[in-house]
Structure to design on (197 residues):
């Protein structure tokens, strides 16, 4: 199936796509503050991902305010040495102290394969390839030198074109993908987006 969108020219080179995403997200000062808070914990292989990126990009492409105050902020990291839920909860408490008023969700990708019934993940980017939709599988990391790294193992085309489609994992688990789409208000929030069911 060929899907076309007029929302964004996704034929941009990869580096230009990455710059575009970073520019959009950093229009919201809260995003940079959240990235700084996450970086201060010095977690291994971390990024802020999912709605942290997708919501801001789609809001900007739709002419809406960048920040989604009701959304949680997903912090991913990969630490095989301590895959406990207690560690995640401790990180969420630290983040809440650093950036109050944010609904933080920290998830160690070294243990999430157990929750999802997948083979063990190798790292954070590999874990994101098992997410159900392509446009959400994007994360940002603020490096020590101030650069922003983009983690997008499934690419940025669908994010920038506002296309919500199942990843390979989403195709294998199509009922879970459809259930997630049905449970959210995304179609009403972003009427320009293309939703593939």
């Amino acid at each position: 199936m060929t899907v076309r969108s007029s929302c964004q020219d996704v034929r941009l080179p990869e580096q230009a796509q990455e710059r575009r995403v970073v520019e959009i997200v950093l229009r919201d000062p809260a995003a940079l503050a959240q990235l700084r808070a996450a970086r201060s914990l010095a977690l291994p292989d971390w990024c802020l991902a999912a709605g942290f990126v997708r919501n801001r990009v789609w809001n900007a492409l739709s002419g809406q305010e960048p920040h989604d105050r009701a959304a949680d902020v997903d912090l991913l990291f990969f630490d095989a040495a301590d895959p406990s839920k207690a560690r995640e909860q401790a990180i969420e408490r630290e983040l809440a102290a650093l950036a109050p008023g944010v609904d933080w969700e920290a998830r160690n990708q070294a243990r999430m394969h157990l929750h999802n019934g997948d083979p063990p993940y190798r790292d954070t980017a590999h874990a994101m390839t098992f997410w159900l939709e392509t446009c959400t599988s994007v994360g940002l990391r603020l490096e020590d030198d101030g650069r922003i790294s983009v983690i997008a193992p499934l690419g940025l085309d669908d994010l920038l074109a506002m296309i919500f489609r199942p990843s390979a994992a989403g195709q294998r688990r199509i009922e879970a993908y459809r259930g997630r789409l049905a449970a959210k208000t995304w179609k009403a929030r972003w009427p320009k987006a293309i939703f593939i069911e």
In short: The radius of gyration is 16 Å. The longest strand covers residues 73-77.
